[in-house]
Amino acid sequence: MEHLFAPWRMAYVSGVDLVTGCIFCAAAAGGPETLTLLRGERVFALLNRYPYTSGHLMVAPVPHVGDLSGLDGPTIAEMMVMAQRLVGVLRDVYAPHGFNLGLNLGESAGAGVVDHVHLHLVPRWRGDTNFMSVSAGLRVLPEDLTDTYGRLRSALEGGHA
Questions:
Q1: pLDDT tens for residues 50-76?
Q2: For 15-143, where are the alpha helices, taking DSSP H only?
Q3: What is d(CA 8, CA 90) in angstroms, rounded to the nearest whole number?
């Protein structure tokens, strides 16, 4: 798996975007290099390339929909069922003390991608909020994305949750 993610590491450091257009549409159509972990009928889950914590996932609908009101009931239901499964997997693999789940709708609400709805799942541990992100604008992650992807794929393939 190492070779799949190496270009993304340099892009993260250099600020170069390797995906043009919507990252969620690219991920819905792509392979493992998109960090897509799980696919459903209407939604899919992928790792966040710029995570707040190890295991930071996102669940998004396959169609390019920019507002929650544009999603039908079955899609919203599948998003929540997938989130429920992934919380179980994250709990088994990382043993976090809690989770933040949320939708950032609109740029002023913190959405990095404003035109494709997505649900964030962020594992949390006591004491994980520290001065680094506030004072230095940095995030400290104890695990590389390649390792996170491998651990979660193994758990999903092994039937966890």
A1: 888 899 999 999 999 999 999 999 999
A2: 23-29, 73-94, 131
A3: 23
Residue type at 60 in one-letter notation: A
**Interatomic CA distance for residues 70 and 116, integer angstroms:** 10
- 118 annotated active-site: yes
Q: pTM for the whole thing?
A: 0.78
* Length of the chain as a residue count: 161
Q: Which of 116, 118, 120, 160 is catalytic?
A: 118
- The rounded distance, in Å, linking the Cα atoms of 108 and 20 is 23
CATH for 2-125+135-152? 3.30.428.10
What does each C-alpha distance from 92 to 2, 44, 109, 126 come to in angstroms? Answer: 24, 20, 31, 17
Domain ranges of the chain: 2-125+135-152
